[in-house]
Write a structure and sequence with these properties.
There is one protein chain. By secondary structure, the chain is α/β, with parallel strands linked by helices. It folds into two domains: 173 residues, NAD(P)-binding Rossmann-like Domain (Rossmann fold, 3-Layer(aba) Sandwich); 154 residues, 2-Layer Sandwich (Dihydrodipicolinate Reductase, domain 2), CATH 3.30.360. 47% of the residues are buried. Bound molecules: NADP nicotinamide-adenine-dinucleotide phosphate (NAP). NADP nicotinamide-adenine-dinucleotide phosphate binds next to helix 1 and helix 13.
Length: 346
Protein backbone atom coordinates (compact mmCIF):
# COMPACT_ATOMS: atom_id res chain seq x y z
CA UNK A 1 0.00 0.00 0.00
CA UNK A 2 1.54 3.39 -0.99
CA UNK A 3 2.33 5.68 1.93
CA UNK A 4 2.25 9.41 1.13
CA UNK A 5 4.37 11.74 3.25
CA UNK A 6 2.73 15.11 3.75
CA UNK A 7 4.00 18.39 5.18
CA UNK A 8 1.69 20.90 6.86
CA UNK A 9 2.96 24.47 6.54
CA UNK A 10 0.50 26.47 8.66
CA UNK A 11 -1.17 24.72 11.56
CA UNK A 12 -4.01 27.11 12.44
CA UNK A 13 -7.76 26.53 11.97
CA UNK A 14 -7.36 25.05 8.51
CA UNK A 15 -4.12 23.07 9.05
CA UNK A 16 -5.50 21.47 12.19
CA UNK A 17 -8.90 20.66 10.67
CA UNK A 18 -7.02 19.02 7.78
CA UNK A 19 -4.83 16.99 10.16
CA UNK A 20 -7.94 15.76 11.94
CA UNK A 21 -9.73 14.85 8.73
CA UNK A 22 -6.77 13.23 6.97
CA UNK A 23 -5.16 11.40 9.86
CA UNK A 24 -7.95 10.74 12.30
CA UNK A 25 -11.40 10.73 10.65
CA UNK A 26 -10.65 9.55 7.11
CA UNK A 27 -7.66 7.30 7.70
CA UNK A 28 -9.60 4.00 7.48
CA UNK A 29 -11.55 5.18 4.46
CA UNK A 30 -8.35 6.21 2.64
CA UNK A 31 -6.97 2.72 3.25
CA UNK A 32 -10.15 0.82 2.33
CA UNK A 33 -11.33 2.91 -0.63
CA UNK A 34 -8.11 4.25 -2.12
CA UNK A 35 -5.52 1.78 -0.84
CA UNK A 36 -3.26 4.50 0.51
CA UNK A 37 -1.88 5.76 3.76
CA UNK A 38 -0.78 9.18 4.89
CA UNK A 39 1.98 10.10 7.29
CA UNK A 40 2.80 13.67 8.39
CA UNK A 41 6.55 14.25 8.24
CA UNK A 42 6.58 17.97 9.02
CA UNK A 43 4.49 20.66 10.70
CA UNK A 44 5.38 24.36 10.62
CA UNK A 45 3.88 27.42 12.28
CA UNK A 46 4.92 31.08 12.39
CA UNK A 47 5.35 31.62 16.14
CA UNK A 48 4.68 28.17 17.65
CA UNK A 49 7.64 26.20 16.34
CA UNK A 50 8.30 23.67 13.59
CA UNK A 51 8.89 19.93 13.70
CA UNK A 52 10.38 17.40 11.28
CA UNK A 53 10.42 13.62 11.46
CA UNK A 54 10.91 11.63 8.24
CA UNK A 55 9.44 8.58 9.97
CA UNK A 56 6.25 10.43 10.87
CA UNK A 57 5.18 12.88 13.57
CA UNK A 58 2.71 12.16 16.35
CA UNK A 59 -0.22 14.19 14.98
CA UNK A 60 -2.46 13.72 18.03
CA UNK A 61 0.30 15.15 20.22
CA UNK A 62 0.79 18.04 17.78
CA UNK A 63 -2.94 18.83 17.87
CA UNK A 64 -2.96 18.80 21.68
CA UNK A 65 0.14 20.97 21.88
CA UNK A 66 -1.23 23.45 19.33
CA UNK A 67 -4.54 23.66 21.23
CA UNK A 68 -2.56 24.42 24.40
CA UNK A 69 -0.50 27.08 22.60
CA UNK A 70 2.72 25.09 23.09
CA UNK A 71 5.80 25.13 20.86
CA UNK A 72 5.86 22.20 18.41
CA UNK A 73 9.67 22.09 18.16
CA UNK A 74 9.71 19.60 21.05
CA UNK A 75 8.29 16.99 18.63
CA UNK A 76 11.10 17.42 16.08
CA UNK A 77 13.47 14.52 15.48
CA UNK A 78 15.92 16.93 13.83
CA UNK A 79 17.04 20.48 14.61
CA UNK A 80 13.85 22.47 13.87
CA UNK A 81 13.81 24.54 10.67
CA UNK A 82 14.45 28.25 11.03
CA UNK A 83 11.68 29.50 8.73
CA UNK A 84 9.10 28.42 6.15
CA UNK A 85 11.61 28.10 3.30
CA UNK A 86 14.05 26.12 5.44
CA UNK A 87 11.10 23.88 6.36
CA UNK A 88 10.17 23.21 2.71
CA UNK A 89 13.83 22.70 1.79
CA UNK A 90 14.35 20.06 4.47
CA UNK A 91 11.05 18.24 4.90
CA UNK A 92 10.86 14.72 3.42
CA UNK A 93 7.46 14.90 1.77
CA UNK A 94 5.47 14.06 -1.35
CA UNK A 95 2.86 16.76 -0.77
CA UNK A 96 3.03 20.25 0.76
CA UNK A 97 -0.15 21.76 2.21
CA UNK A 98 0.43 25.53 2.46
CA UNK A 99 -2.13 27.09 4.81
CA UNK A 100 -0.57 30.31 6.06
CA UNK A 101 -2.43 33.66 6.20
CA UNK A 102 -3.29 35.42 2.95
CA UNK A 103 -1.16 38.34 1.77
CA UNK A 104 -3.52 40.36 -0.47
CA UNK A 105 -0.80 42.57 -2.00
CA UNK A 106 1.86 40.04 -3.05
CA UNK A 107 0.81 36.49 -2.14
CA UNK A 108 4.12 36.02 -0.31
CA UNK A 109 5.64 34.12 1.43
CA UNK A 110 3.16 31.44 0.34
CA UNK A 111 4.21 31.68 -3.35
CA UNK A 112 7.87 31.05 -2.47
CA UNK A 113 6.90 28.09 -0.27
CA UNK A 114 4.79 26.54 -3.05
CA UNK A 115 7.41 27.21 -5.74
CA UNK A 116 10.14 25.53 -3.72
CA UNK A 117 7.87 22.56 -2.94
CA UNK A 118 7.21 22.05 -6.67
CA UNK A 119 10.92 22.46 -7.48
CA UNK A 120 11.62 19.76 -4.91
CA UNK A 121 9.12 17.44 -6.64
CA UNK A 122 6.19 17.75 -4.22
CA UNK A 123 2.56 18.38 -5.12
CA UNK A 124 1.62 21.86 -3.87
CA UNK A 125 -1.84 22.34 -2.34
CA UNK A 126 -3.19 25.47 -0.64
CA UNK A 127 -6.33 27.12 0.75
CA UNK A 128 -4.58 30.48 0.41
CA UNK A 129 -6.01 32.84 -2.24
CA UNK A 130 -2.80 34.90 -2.50
CA UNK A 131 -0.81 32.45 -4.66
CA UNK A 132 -3.82 31.91 -6.96
CA UNK A 133 -4.18 35.57 -7.87
CA UNK A 134 -0.48 36.45 -7.83
CA UNK A 135 1.16 33.33 -9.30
CA UNK A 136 -1.42 30.96 -10.83
CA UNK A 137 0.16 30.74 -14.27
CA UNK A 138 3.73 30.48 -12.99
CA UNK A 139 2.90 27.75 -10.45
CA UNK A 140 0.72 25.78 -12.90
CA UNK A 141 3.54 25.85 -15.50
CA UNK A 142 6.12 24.79 -12.94
CA UNK A 143 3.86 21.99 -11.69
CA UNK A 144 3.39 20.73 -15.26
CA UNK A 145 7.18 20.76 -15.87
CA UNK A 146 7.71 18.79 -12.69
CA UNK A 147 4.88 16.32 -13.38
CA UNK A 148 3.17 17.50 -10.20
CA UNK A 149 -0.04 19.35 -9.32
CA UNK A 150 -0.72 22.86 -7.99
CA UNK A 151 -4.25 22.79 -6.54
CA UNK A 152 -6.27 25.25 -4.44
CA UNK A 153 -9.91 24.11 -4.24
CA UNK A 154 -10.45 25.56 -0.76
CA UNK A 155 -9.31 29.07 -1.70
CA UNK A 156 -12.85 30.07 -2.79
CA UNK A 157 -16.14 28.72 -1.32
CA UNK A 158 -14.33 26.53 1.24
CA UNK A 159 -14.53 22.93 0.02
CA UNK A 160 -17.29 23.33 -2.56
CA UNK A 161 -15.82 22.07 -5.85
CA UNK A 162 -15.88 25.36 -7.73
CA UNK A 163 -12.50 25.04 -9.47
CA UNK A 164 -13.00 21.32 -10.02
CA UNK A 165 -16.39 22.02 -11.55
CA UNK A 166 -14.74 24.24 -14.14
CA UNK A 167 -11.55 22.24 -14.71
CA UNK A 168 -12.96 18.70 -14.65
CA UNK A 169 -16.62 18.95 -15.56
CA UNK A 170 -16.72 21.74 -18.17
CA UNK A 171 -14.11 20.83 -20.79
CA UNK A 172 -14.34 23.07 -23.83
CA UNK A 173 -16.80 25.45 -22.19
CA UNK A 174 -16.16 29.18 -21.90
CA UNK A 175 -17.17 31.13 -18.82
CA UNK A 176 -18.53 34.42 -20.16
CA UNK A 177 -19.54 35.84 -16.80
CA UNK A 178 -20.24 34.91 -13.19
CA UNK A 179 -22.14 36.37 -10.29
CA UNK A 180 -22.37 35.29 -6.70
CA UNK A 181 -21.93 35.73 -2.97
CA UNK A 182 -18.41 34.75 -1.99
CA UNK A 183 -17.81 36.33 1.42
CA UNK A 184 -19.56 34.51 4.28
CA UNK A 185 -18.82 37.13 6.94
CA UNK A 186 -20.59 39.98 5.18
CA UNK A 187 -23.48 37.71 4.18
CA UNK A 188 -23.89 36.70 7.83
CA UNK A 189 -23.76 40.36 8.92
CA UNK A 190 -26.42 41.40 6.38
CA UNK A 191 -28.56 38.41 7.42
CA UNK A 192 -28.36 39.39 11.12
CA UNK A 193 -29.20 43.02 10.29
CA UNK A 194 -32.34 41.81 8.54
CA UNK A 195 -33.48 38.90 10.72
CA UNK A 196 -32.41 40.24 14.16
CA UNK A 197 -32.69 43.97 13.53
CA UNK A 198 -29.02 44.45 14.50
CA UNK A 199 -26.86 47.42 13.55
CA UNK A 200 -23.76 46.76 11.45
CA UNK A 201 -21.59 46.98 14.60
CA UNK A 202 -23.81 44.55 16.55
CA UNK A 203 -23.83 42.09 13.65
CA UNK A 204 -20.03 42.32 13.34
CA UNK A 205 -19.70 41.67 17.10
CA UNK A 206 -21.96 38.61 16.72
CA UNK A 207 -19.87 37.29 13.80
CA UNK A 208 -16.72 37.76 15.91
CA UNK A 209 -18.28 36.00 18.94
CA UNK A 210 -19.04 32.86 16.93
CA UNK A 211 -15.57 32.88 15.32
CA UNK A 212 -16.61 33.82 11.77
CA UNK A 213 -15.21 37.38 11.66
CA UNK A 214 -11.62 38.20 12.52
CA UNK A 215 -10.68 40.65 15.30
CA UNK A 216 -10.04 43.16 12.51
CA UNK A 217 -12.99 42.54 10.15
CA UNK A 218 -12.07 45.32 7.68
CA UNK A 219 -10.86 42.88 4.98
CA UNK A 220 -14.42 41.50 4.84
CA UNK A 221 -16.39 44.70 5.46
CA UNK A 222 -14.46 46.70 2.86
CA UNK A 223 -14.85 43.97 0.26
CA UNK A 224 -11.17 42.95 -0.03
CA UNK A 225 -11.76 39.27 0.69
CA UNK A 226 -14.56 39.21 -1.89
CA UNK A 227 -12.35 41.08 -4.40
CA UNK A 228 -9.47 38.61 -4.11
CA UNK A 229 -11.92 35.73 -4.63
CA UNK A 230 -13.31 37.43 -7.73
CA UNK A 231 -9.75 37.90 -8.97
CA UNK A 232 -9.01 34.21 -8.35
CA UNK A 233 -12.10 33.07 -10.28
CA UNK A 234 -11.39 35.44 -13.19
CA UNK A 235 -7.76 34.28 -13.35
CA UNK A 236 -8.69 30.60 -13.47
CA UNK A 237 -12.07 30.62 -15.28
CA UNK A 238 -11.32 33.30 -17.84
CA UNK A 239 -7.56 32.89 -18.20
CA UNK A 240 -7.09 36.62 -17.56
CA UNK A 241 -4.68 37.41 -14.72
CA UNK A 242 -6.47 39.90 -12.49
CA UNK A 243 -5.27 41.45 -9.24
CA UNK A 244 -7.71 42.28 -6.41
CA UNK A 245 -6.76 45.95 -6.86
CA UNK A 246 -8.25 45.77 -10.39
CA UNK A 247 -11.66 44.72 -9.09
CA UNK A 248 -14.04 47.68 -8.71
CA UNK A 249 -14.80 47.37 -5.03
CA UNK A 250 -17.33 48.74 -2.59
CA UNK A 251 -17.95 47.04 0.76
CA UNK A 252 -20.92 47.11 3.13
CA UNK A 253 -19.60 49.65 5.66
CA UNK A 254 -22.06 52.36 4.61
CA UNK A 255 -25.15 50.10 4.83
CA UNK A 256 -27.37 50.86 7.83
CA UNK A 257 -30.03 48.82 9.60
CA UNK A 258 -32.57 51.23 8.07
CA UNK A 259 -31.30 50.43 4.54
CA UNK A 260 -31.61 46.72 5.17
CA UNK A 261 -35.08 47.04 6.67
CA UNK A 262 -36.28 49.34 3.88
CA UNK A 263 -35.22 46.71 1.33
CA UNK A 264 -36.97 43.97 3.35
CA UNK A 265 -40.18 46.03 3.46
CA UNK A 266 -40.14 45.96 -0.36
CA UNK A 267 -39.46 42.20 -0.49
CA UNK A 268 -35.75 42.63 -1.32
CA UNK A 269 -32.39 41.99 0.37
CA UNK A 270 -29.01 43.69 0.27
CA UNK A 271 -26.24 41.30 -0.76
CA UNK A 272 -22.54 41.89 -1.34
CA UNK A 273 -22.58 40.82 -4.97
CA UNK A 274 -19.42 39.60 -6.68
CA UNK A 275 -19.46 39.62 -10.46
CA UNK A 276 -17.29 39.53 -13.55
CA UNK A 277 -18.01 39.73 -17.25
CA UNK A 278 -15.82 39.24 -20.29
CA UNK A 279 -16.07 42.23 -22.64
CA UNK A 280 -16.08 41.87 -26.42
CA UNK A 281 -12.43 43.02 -26.58
CA UNK A 282 -11.38 40.11 -24.31
CA UNK A 283 -10.80 42.23 -21.21
CA UNK A 284 -12.76 41.60 -18.03
CA UNK A 285 -14.91 43.89 -15.93
CA UNK A 286 -14.99 42.71 -12.31
CA UNK A 287 -16.95 44.15 -9.38
CA UNK A 288 -17.76 43.72 -5.71
CA UNK A 289 -20.64 45.90 -4.55
CA UNK A 290 -23.75 45.81 -2.39
CA UNK A 291 -26.88 45.33 -4.50
CA UNK A 292 -30.56 44.86 -3.73
CA UNK A 293 -31.84 41.53 -5.02
CA UNK A 294 -35.39 40.21 -5.17
CA UNK A 295 -36.83 36.70 -4.73
CA UNK A 296 -36.38 36.02 -8.46
CA UNK A 297 -32.59 36.01 -7.95
CA UNK A 298 -30.80 32.80 -6.87
CA UNK A 299 -28.78 35.05 -4.52
CA UNK A 300 -31.88 36.10 -2.51
CA UNK A 301 -32.24 32.88 -0.47
CA UNK A 302 -28.52 32.55 0.29
CA UNK A 303 -28.42 33.45 3.99
CA UNK A 304 -25.92 33.43 6.85
CA UNK A 305 -22.51 31.97 6.04
CA UNK A 306 -23.74 30.27 2.86
CA UNK A 307 -22.36 31.20 -0.55
CA UNK A 308 -23.16 30.77 -4.22
CA UNK A 309 -21.63 31.22 -7.64
CA UNK A 310 -23.64 31.32 -10.84
CA UNK A 311 -21.66 30.72 -14.02
CA UNK A 312 -22.80 31.98 -17.39
CA UNK A 313 -21.21 29.69 -19.98
CA UNK A 314 -21.37 29.70 -23.77
CA UNK A 315 -22.76 26.17 -23.93
CA UNK A 316 -24.79 25.42 -20.79
CA UNK A 317 -26.31 28.80 -20.05
CA UNK A 318 -26.55 29.45 -16.30
CA UNK A 319 -25.06 26.93 -13.92
CA UNK A 320 -25.03 27.47 -10.14
CA UNK A 321 -23.04 26.00 -7.27
CA UNK A 322 -24.35 26.78 -3.80
CA UNK A 323 -22.86 25.86 -0.43
CA UNK A 324 -25.07 26.04 2.66
CA UNK A 325 -23.71 26.70 6.17
CA UNK A 326 -20.14 25.43 5.69
CA UNK A 327 -18.21 24.16 8.75
CA UNK A 328 -14.38 24.27 9.18
CA UNK A 329 -14.44 20.69 7.87
CA UNK A 330 -15.58 21.99 4.47
CA UNK A 331 -12.26 23.81 3.96
CA UNK A 332 -10.33 20.76 5.13
CA UNK A 333 -12.35 18.62 2.74
CA UNK A 334 -11.37 20.79 -0.23
CA UNK A 335 -7.72 20.14 0.65
CA UNK A 336 -8.35 16.42 1.05
CA UNK A 337 -10.10 16.36 -2.34
CA UNK A 338 -7.08 18.13 -3.88
CA UNK A 339 -4.79 15.57 -2.26
CA UNK A 340 -6.72 12.67 -3.79
CA UNK A 341 -6.78 14.43 -7.18
CA UNK A 342 -3.00 14.89 -6.98
CA UNK A 343 -1.94 11.42 -5.91
CA UNK A 344 -4.41 9.18 -7.73
CA UNK A 345 -3.76 8.23 -11.34
CA UNK A 346 -5.98 9.63 -14.09
N1 LIG B 1 -10.50 29.66 8.13
C1 LIG B 1 -11.21 29.30 7.06
O1 LIG B 1 -12.33 28.81 7.19
C2 LIG B 1 -10.60 29.42 5.67
C3 LIG B 1 -11.40 29.07 4.57
C4 LIG B 1 -10.83 29.11 3.29
C5 LIG B 1 -9.51 29.51 3.13
N2 LIG B 1 -8.77 29.89 4.23
C6 LIG B 1 -7.36 30.29 4.04
O2 LIG B 1 -6.52 29.30 4.65
C7 LIG B 1 -5.33 29.91 5.15
C8 LIG B 1 -5.18 29.56 6.62
O3 LIG B 1 -6.29 30.04 7.35
P1 LIG B 1 -6.45 29.75 8.92
O4 LIG B 1 -7.85 30.15 9.27
O5 LIG B 1 -5.99 28.37 9.24
O6 LIG B 1 -5.41 30.81 9.52
P2 LIG B 1 -4.81 30.82 11.00
O7 LIG B 1 -5.72 30.10 11.94
O8 LIG B 1 -4.41 32.21 11.27
O9 LIG B 1 -3.48 29.92 10.87
C9 LIG B 1 -2.35 30.31 10.12
C10 LIG B 1 -1.19 29.36 10.41
O10 LIG B 1 -0.08 29.75 9.62
C11 LIG B 1 1.07 29.91 10.49
N3 LIG B 1 1.98 30.88 9.89
C12 LIG B 1 1.82 32.21 9.75
N4 LIG B 1 2.86 32.74 9.07
C13 LIG B 1 3.70 31.71 8.80
C14 LIG B 1 4.96 31.61 8.14
N5 LIG B 1 5.55 32.67 7.60
N6 LIG B 1 5.55 30.39 8.05
C15 LIG B 1 4.96 29.30 8.58
N7 LIG B 1 3.75 29.33 9.21
C16 LIG B 1 3.14 30.52 9.32
C17 LIG B 1 0.47 30.35 11.81
O11 LIG B 1 1.39 30.14 12.85
P3 LIG B 1 1.33 31.04 14.20
O12 LIG B 1 -0.08 30.94 14.71
O13 LIG B 1 2.33 30.40 15.10
O14 LIG B 1 1.69 32.41 13.77
C18 LIG B 1 -0.72 29.39 11.87
O15 LIG B 1 -0.31 28.11 12.25
C19 LIG B 1 -5.48 31.42 4.88
O16 LIG B 1 -4.79 31.76 3.72
C20 LIG B 1 -6.98 31.59 4.72
O17 LIG B 1 -7.30 32.71 3.90
C21 LIG B 1 -9.29 29.83 5.47
Amino acid sequence: MPVYRVALLGFGNVGRALAQLLLLRKQDELRARYDLEVVVTGIATGRHGMALNPAGLDVRAALEMAAAGQDLSALSAEPPPTDGLDFVRRVAADVLFENTPVNYETGEPAISHLRLALERGMHAITANKGPVVHAFHELRRLAACQGRKFLFESAVMDGAPVFRLYEAALPGAQVRAFRGILNSTTNLILTRMETHGETLEQAVAYAQRIGIAETDPSGDINGWDAAIKVAALVTVFMGVPLKPQQVQRRGIRHLSRADVQAAAAQGQRWKLVCSARRRDDGTVEARVEPQRVGPESPLYGVMGTSSIVQLDTDVLGQLSLREDDPTPDATAYGLLADFLTAVRPG
